[in-house]
UniProtKB/TrEMBL annotation, chain A:
This is Spermidine/putrescine import ATP-binding protein PotA. Residues 11-239 form the ABC transporter domain. The gene is potA. It is an enzyme of class 7 (translocase). Belongs to the ABC transporter superfamily. Spermidine/putrescine importer (TC 3.A.1.11.1) family. One of its GO terms (molecular function) is ATP binding. Its EC number is 7.6.2.11.
Length: 385, 309, 266
C-alpha cells in the first residue's frame, strides 16, 4: 500500500473538549492518530472515549478545540460531509432495508448510480454474498457486525471509527472478529479508531492504545509499552493485574533506586520510576503477577542474589490449566497475586505454606504514591460482567 | 428547518470552513409544534374560554347576550338538572364496572389463551368500530324489543323481577329503561376497555405465572397477586377511556332510553341545539367538564399511576 | 368432578367468548336485518326475507350523498390530523424545549374531555365568530379531536426507535432531509399508519361533535340519527354490513400479505 507519504488519513485533535452543563465529559486533549494506524481508545464506560469518537464522527459538537483530518479542519462539518464512517455500537443497521441496501446506503446518498458491483464485492469480502436480500433481523450477531463493517468500509472513508463494535458478540466470536477486523485493516490500510472497554481487545488489535479515565487520556503508547511501563495505577490495574507495595525511598545509586518495604530492600531502575523519588519520600512499587517466581521458605537460600524478594504465606491457590494463580498475604501487601506457569509444580506450595516471592528488579515499576492503589480495578470487574 | 436540499457531499477536501459552531436546529421543535398546537389552542382551548364566558352571560337570543357575571346560572342549572347529573355519573359508573367485568376475561383470553386465534379475535374486537356505532346502537332496539327472545328469556328466568325491584327496568320492558341505556353504554365503550387491558396484559411475562405457580400460588392467587396488579395501568386507562365518554354521552339515552333516563349530555344537547338557551347549556357543560376532570385527577392520584399520561 | 374441573379450567375462555358474543351480536342483527322487508317505516322487527335493499343501496334520498360527504371529511381530517400530529410527536420525542409540560397537557386534555363539552364549546366559538356551520366547521372539529390520538400513536413508535439509526444515516452521507425521508419516516411509518387509521375511523364515525357543528350539513352518522327519528330504511343496514365486511377483509388481506412476506424472507 502506497500510503506512507500521504497524511490525509491523519486524525489530529487539538485541545478538544466536551462539556454538558457542569459535567465535563472530555477534558481538553491533544491526540494525533497517524494515517494507516489502528488506534484504540480504551476505558471504562463513561470515561469519555465514545464522546471523543463521536466528536471525530461529527455526531457531537466539541465545546472547544478542533478536529483535523489530514490538513482539513472538519470541526464544524456535519457528519454527512465528513469522509469518516462509523461502525456503531449494536450496529444500527436500518431495519427496513435489506443487507444489500444497507451496504449501498452511503454510495447512493453520494449520488453514485451503479452500486451493484461494488456492493457485491464488499459483501463477498465479508462473506455475506448469499445474504444480500435478507433483512438485518434475520442475521446472526456476527453477520450483522460484518454488515456494519461493510456498510462503512464501502465508502472508502479516510478514517473508520468503531464504537464498541464487538460488544454484543459472545467471547468466541469476539476473538474471531478481532482477527478479522485486524486483517481487513491491514488489507485496506485505512486509519481505524476503535473504542472499547475490553483491554484484551485493545491490546490484540491496536498499534497504539490511549487509556482514558474520567475524561482524560491517562497514558498513550503501544500495548507492550503500556503493559510493561504503566505510569499510573489506573493503567496498571486496568490493563492486566498489578501488585503494589508502598515503599520508602532509601537512597539513589546511579540508575537504581533503593527502597525500604517492611524491613526488606527492593531495587527499582530509575528509568522505570515515573514518580519523583527523593530520599525519604514514598513510592508505589508495582510488579506484574506473572513476573514473580515463588519459592518455598525452606528453599530461600537457593534464590540468586540481586533479585527483589518479599516473604509471605499462601492464602489461596487456584489451578487454571496453563498456570496456577496464588494469592499471598505478606506483611508489606495483603492479597499479592502470583501467576506461576505449571512447569514443575512444587507440591509444598499449598495454602498456608510460608513462601518467598522474588523477581528481577528490571520488572519493577515505580509510581507516585499519592494516587489510589486500586484505581481502575472496580471498573474492570463491572465491564466484564 | 435547517438545510433542506443538499448537493452530493463533496468528499474531496474542501476549503476549510471557518464558520462558528452552528446552533443545530434550536428552533426546529417550535416549528414542528406550531401548526398542531395552534390548532388545539384555537379550536380546543379558546372555545373553552368562550364557553366559560357564555356561561356568565345574560340576555336573549333576539337581543343578544352580554357578560354580566351572572353566576346564578350555575346554581339554577344545578338545582334544575341535578337528577340528570347524578344519573350520568351512575350510568357511566355502572357501564364502566360492567365493561371491566366483561372486558377483562376477553382481554385475558386474547393475551394468554387464544394461541393461533389471537389475531382473529383481535380483528373481531376492532372490526365493529368500522360499522357506524349509531347503526349498531339501533340494533339494540331490535335485540331488546318488547316481547323479543331476550326479554322473554329474562322474564322466564325472573331476572326482570329483580331488575324491576332495583328500579332498573319497568314491567315487562327493557327498552326505554335504565338497564337498556347502561347496556348500550357498556356495549359502545367495551372496546375502549379491552384494548388497553390487552396491551398491559400482553406485556406480562408468561414466566411470571409459572414462577408464581412454582412458589405455591394457586391460579386464583396468582391472578390476584401477580396478574391483576401488573395489569393496573390497563385497568386505569381502560376505566378512564370508558367512564369519560360514557358520562358525556347522550346517544344511548336518546335511542334506547326514555324521558326518565335523560343524562346531562341530553340536556346540554337540547339546550344548545333546540331550546337555544346558551348560558344554561354552557354552564352545564362547564360543570360536567370540571366534575369529570376533578374525578379523573383524584382517580389517577389514588391509583398511583400519574406517569400513565 | 371432572365436569367442574373442565369448567374451572375454561372459565376464562367461556367468559371471554360470552363478551365477544355481546360485542358481535349487534353486527349479526344489522346483517340479518339488511335482508328484511319491514312493514312500516322502522326496520326493528323481522318480517320477511328480501334482497331489495342490497339491489338498490342508494335508493334512499340523501343517504349515499351523506356517505360520500363523510368519506371526504374523514379523508381530509385524517390527512390534516396525521400531518400535524406526526410533527408534534417528533417534536415531543426528539427535541428538548420549554413548555413541554404544557404541550403534553394540551395533547392529553382533548382525550380526557367528554365529547359533548368539546362540541358545545366549539359551537360557542363558531357562533361568536359568526362562522357558517357546514363542511369546514366539521373538518376543523374533526382534525382537532383526532390530533391527540395521532400524536399518541406516532409518539409510541418514534420513542421505541433507536436514535443511532439516524446518526448512522448522517454518518453515511445522508443530509437532514435525506435522513428523514430514507430512514426516519420509513421506520416511523407503522406508527403513523396506525394513527391515520384511528383518525379515519374516529372521524368517519363521529356523531356528537358533528351534531353540534354541522349546521344543516348531513354526514352519514347524522343521517342515521335523523332516520332513527323519522324511520330507518333497510339500506342503512346494508351500508353497515358492507362496512363491517370490507373492514374485516381489509385487515385479513393485509395480514395475509405480511405473513407471506415474512415467510418468503425467512
Amino acid at each position: 500500500m502506497n500510503t506512507t507519504t500521504d497524511n490525509s488519513g491523519d486524525v489530529r485533535l487539538t485541545q478538544i473538549g466536551k462539556r454538558y452543563g457542569a459535567f465535563t465529559a472530555v477534558h481538553p486533549l491533544d491526540l494525533t492518530v497517524p494515517q494507516g494506524s489502528f488506534f484504540a481508545l480504551l476505558g471504562a464506560s463513561g470515561c469519555g472515549k465514545t464522546t471523543t469518537l463521536r466528536m471525530i464522527a461529527g455526531l457531537e459538537e466539541p465545546s472547544q478545540g478542533t478536529v483535523h483530518l489530514g490538513d482539513q479542519d472538519v470541526t464544524h462539518l456535519p457528519p454527512y460531509k465528513r469522509p469518516v464512517n462509523t461502525v456503531f455500537q449494536s450496529y444500527a443497521l436500518f431495519p427496513h432495508l435489506d443487507i444489500f441496501e444497507n451496504v449501498a446506503f452511503g454510495l447512493r446518498r453520494r449520488g453514485i448510480k451503479s452500486v451493484k458491483k461494488q456492493v457485491e464485492e464488499m459483501l463477498d469480502l465479508v462473506q455475506l454474498g448469499e445474504q444480500a436480500r435478507k433483512k438485518p433481523h434475520q442475521l446472526s450477531g456476527g453477520q450483522q457486525q460484518r454488515v456494519a463493517v461493510a456498510r462503512a468500509l464501502i465508502n472508502h472513508p479516510k478514517v473508520l471509527l468503531l464504537d464498541e463494535p464487538l460488544g454484543a458478540l459472545d467471547l468466541k466470536l469476539r476473538r474471531q472478529m478481532q482477527l478479522e477486523l485486524k486483517r481487513i485493516q491491514t488489507e485496506v490500510g485505512i486509519t481505524f479508531v476503535h473504542v472499547t472497554h475490553d483491554q484484551e481487545e485493545a491490546m490484540t488489535m491496536a498499534d497504539t492504545v490511549a487509556v482514558m479515565n474520567a475524561g482524560r487520556v491517562e497514558q498513550l503508547g503501544s500495548p507492550a509499552d503500556l503493559y510493561e511501563n504503566p505510569r499510573t495505577t489506573f493503567v496498571a490495574n486496568f490493563l492486566g493485574t498489578s501488585n503494589f507495595i508502598e515503599a520508602d525511598v532509601d537512597f539513589k545509586s546511579g540508575d537504581e533506586i533503593v527502597l525500604n518495604a517492611g524491613g526488606g530492600k527492593l531495587f527499582l531502575p530509575t528509568a522505570r520510576c515515573s514518580a519523583q523519588a527523593a530520599a525519604g519520600g514514598k513510592v508505589l512499587v508495582g510488579v506484574r503477577p506473572e513476573k514473580i517466581a515463588l519459592a518455598h521458605a525452606d528453599d530461600a537460600g537457593e534464590i540468586p542474589e540481586g533479585r527483589n524478594r518479599i516473604t509471605g504465606r499462601i492464602a489461596d491457590s487456584s489451578f487454571i490449566g496453563v498456570s496456577t494463580q496464588y494469592v499471598i498475604d505478606s506483611p508489606v501487601c495483603s492479597g499479592f497475586e502470583v501467576y506461576a506457569q505449571n512447569v514443575d509444580r512444587d507440591p509444598r506450595l499449598t495454602p498456608g505454606a510460608e513462601v518467598v516471592l522474588h523477581w528481577n528488579p528490571a520488572h519493577t515499576f515505580g509510581l507516585d504514591a499519592t494516587q489510589a492503589i486500586d484505581a481502575g480495578v472496580e471498573s474492570v470487574e463491572e465491564d466484564a460482567a | 428547518m435547517s438545510a433542506a436540499t443538499e448537493a452530493p457531499p463533496p468528499l474531496a477536501p474542501t476549503a476549510p470552513e471557518t464558520r462558528p459552531p452552528r446552533k443545530r436546529g434550536r428552533l426546529t421543535p417550535y416549528w414542528l409544534l406550531l401548526p398542531g398546537i395552534l390548532w388545539l389552542v384555537v379550536f380546543f382551548a379558546l372555545p373553552l374560554v368562550y364557553q366559560a364566558s357564555t356561561s356568565v352571560q345574560t340576555g336573549s337570543l333576539e337581543q343578544g347576550y352580554k357578560v354580566t357575571w351572572h353566576f346564578a346560572t350555575y346554581w339554577d342549572a344545578l338545582s334544575e338538572y341535578w337528577p340528570q347529573f347524578v344519573r350520568s355519573v351512575l350510568y357511566a359508573a355502572s357501564a364502566t364496572i360492567l365493561c371491566l367485568l366483561l372486558g377483562y376475561p376477553l382481554a385475558y383470553l386474547i393475551a394468554f389463551r387464544a394461541g393461533r386465534w389471537r389475531n382473529l379475535i383481535m380483528i373481531l374486537v376492532i372490526a365493529p368500530f368500522f360499522t357506524s356505532f349509531l347503526i349498531r346502537t339501533l340494533a339494540w332496539k331490535t335485540i331488546l324489543a318488547d316481547g323479543g327472545p331476550v326479554v322473554g328469556a329474562l322474564n322466564t328466568l325472573h331476572v326482570l323481577d329483580v331488575t324491576n325491584w332495583l328500579g332498573w327496568t319497568a314491567g315487562d320492558r327493557v327498552l326505554a329503561t335504565p338497564l337498556a341505556v347502561v347496556c348500550g353504554l357498556t356495549y359502545n365503550f367495551l372496546p375502549f376497555m379491552i384494548l388497553p387491558l390487552y396491551t398491559s396484559l400482553e406485556r406480562i411475562d408468561g414466566r411470571l405465572h409459572e414462577a408464581a405457580g412454582d412458589l405455591y400460588a394457586r391460579p386464583w392467587t396468582t391472578f390476584r397477586k401477580v396478574t391483576f396488579p401488573l395489569s393496573m395501568p390497563g385497568v386505569v386507562s381502560g376505566t378512564l377511556l370508558t367512564f369519560i365518554p360514557a358520562a358525556g354521552d347522550y346517544v344511548n339515552a336518546d335511542l334506547l332510553g326514555s324521558t326518565d333516563t335523560r343524562m346531562v349530555g341530553n340536556v346540554i344537547q337540547s339546550q344548545f341545539l333546540r331550546i337555544l338557551d346558551y348560558p344554561t347549556a354552557a354552564a352545564l357543560s362547564f360543570i360536567l367538564m370540571a366534575a369529570i376532570l376533578a374525578m379523573v385527577t383524584v382517580y389517577i392520584r389514588r391509583s398511583g399511576t400519574e406517569d400513565l399520561v | 368432578m371432572p365436569f367442574v374441573n373442565w369448567l374451572k379450567r375454561r372459565l376464562v375462555v367461556i367468559a371471554g367468548l360470552i363478551t365477544l358474543g355481546y360485542l358481535l351480536l349487534p353486527n349479526v342483527v344489522v346483517t340479518v336485518f339488511s335482508f328484511n322487508k319491514p312493514k312500516g317505516r322502522f326496520n326493528y322487527e323481522w318480517q320477511q326475507f328480501s334482497t331489495d335493499a342490497w339491489k338498490d343501496p342508494c335508493g334512499v334520498a340523501g343517504m349515499c350523498g351523506s356517505l360520500s360527504l363523510s368519506l371526504q371529511i374523514a379523508v381530509w381530517a385524517t390527512l390534516g390530523a396525521t400531518v400535524l400530529g406526526t410533527m408534534i410527536a417528533f417534536a415531543l420525542v426528539r427535541y428538548r424545549f420549554r413548555a413541554r409540560g404544557a404541550v403534553n397537557s394540551l395533547i392529553f386534555l382533548p382525550m380526557a374531555m367528554p365529547e359533548v363539552v368539546m362540541a358545545a364549546s366549539l359551537l360557542t366559538l363558531f357562533l361568536n365568530m359568526g362562522a357558517q356551520l357546514g363542511f369546514w366547521t366539521i373538518l376543523i372539529a374533526h382534525i382537532m379531536f383526532c390530533l391527540s390520538f395521532v400524536v399518541t400513536a406516532v409518539k409510541a413508535r418514534v420513542m421505541s426507535m433507536d436514535p443511532r439509526l439516524e446518526q448512522a444515516a448522517q454518518d453515511l452521507y445522508a443530509g437532514p432531509l435525506q435522513t428523514f425521508l430514507r430512514v426516519t419516516l420509513p421506520i416511523a411509518a407503522p406508527g403513523i399508519a396506525a394513527g391515520a387509521l384511528l383518525a379515519f375511523a374516529l372521524s368517519f364515525d363521529d356523531f356528537i361533535i358533528t351534531n353540534f357543528n354541522a349546521g344543516s350539513t348531513v354526514t352519514f352518522p347524522m343521517f342515521v340519527w335523523g332516520s332513527a327519528q323519522r324511520g330507518t330504511p333497510v339500506q342503512i343496514n346494508v351500508i353497515g354490513t358492507a362496512m363491517f365486511v370490507v373492514a374485516v377483509l381489509f385487515v385479513l388481506t393485509s395480514m395475509a400479505i405480511s405473513n407471506r412476506r415474512n415467510k418468503q424472507k425467512a
